[in-house]
Write a structure and sequence with these properties.
With 291 residues, this protein is mostly helical. It is 72% helix and 2% strand. The chain has ten helices and two strands. A hairpin with a 2-residue loop joins strand 1 and strand 2. Helix 4 runs antiparallel to helix 5. The longest helix is centred in the N-terminal third of the chain and has 40 residues. The two termini are 39 Å apart.
Length: 291
């Protein structure tokens, strides 16, 4: 009986894993599509200009009809359409997060591959730099740098990217240490291939899967980080909308117009949950270890 139960569990386990992968993955993808697609299509949708003020329509509740049309999510303290501002803010916040993640992934992957493949004192130096960065709180470091150099769009993207490379370097180094011991790497090394060629043509392709999974799981952290910077008033400044500064502006009017904080918060939650579900699904599907 025990053997039969064990055999049944072995047969059903892969099916349950597939159901969980597709269930979580589909749910995560749907959450992301519901938020991202309208944000990308917003410039071509019949919506109010996110920068147009109408003081007569200030603090209009969701669903209010005014001379400028229907405000599905209400208006803010200056009478600006909240839906238009959320979509514009989502688009800008996602651009910042994706570019910052790309910068972090490129820097971290390059340093991690070099540390893992070359080893020696260079590995020790990169590892110490990694430890230093991980020991400093991201938000404090970013706020300090932006206070010194200004909160321009370019500065925010670069600073977020440069301060986030350590986790990519750690994963890339660990995987490179495994890959460099493989026989085909020893073969191409014996053939006289240069180190850059080996890293780019033979090591990097084997790192793509764990790095893509890590990127998917790291984007939620960057979304929250970018929103936190905007909320604290250190990010992109109004009237340009981001998800963080929408909540930062709306918190002063929470008792009067709760929708100013509620809807941007729901968008952030949907993005974070969607990315996490999708990343967890990819992690299980690819059997990737990020340590």
């Amino acid at each position: 009986m025990i053997l039969l139960r064990s055999a049944v569990q072995k047969v059903l386990a892969p099916k349950r894993a597939r159901r969980r992968f597709y269930g979580d993955g589909v749910l995560g993808a749907l959450l992301l599509l519901v938020v991202i697609v309208p944000a990308l299509l917003a410039p071509w949708l019949p919506l109010a200009n996110p920068l147009t003020n109408s003081l007569a329509a200030a603090f209009s509740p969701p669903g209010t009809h005014t001379a400028s049309g229907i405000h599905w999510l209400g208006t803010d303290q200056l009478g600006r359409d909240l839906l238009s501002r959320i979509l514009a803010g989502t688009r800008l916040s996602l651009m910042v997060v994706l570019l910052a993640a790309l910068i972090a992934a490129v820097i971290g992957s390059a340093l991690g591959m070099i540390a893992g493949y070359v080893g020696g004192w260079l590995d020790a130096v990169i590892m110490r730099l990694m430890d230093i960065q991980l020991a400093v709180p991201f938000i404090l470091l970013i706020l300090l740098v932006m206070a010194l150099f200004g909160a321009t769009l370019t500065n925010i993207i670069v600073i977020m990217g440069v301060t986030s490379w350590a986790i990519y370097a750690r994963v890339a180094r660990a995987k490179t240490l495994e890959i460099r011991e493989l026989e085909y790497i020893e073969s191409v090394r014996a053939m006289g291939f240069s180190t850059p060629r080996i890293l780019l043509r033979h090591v990097l392709p084997n790192l793509m899967t764990p790095l893509i999974v890590l990127l998917t799981l790291d984007i939620p952290r960057l979304i929250v980080l970018e929103a936190s910077i905007g909320f604290l008033g250190m990010g992109i400044q109004p009237p340009t909308a981001t998800l963080g500064n929408l909540i930062g502006e709306g918190r002063s009017y929470m008792l009067l117009a709760q929708w100013l904080v509620l809807y941007p918060g729901l968008v952030i939650a949907a993005l974070v949950i969607g990315c996490n579900l999708l990343g967890d699904s990819l992690l299980r599907k690819t059997h990737t270890r990020l340590d």
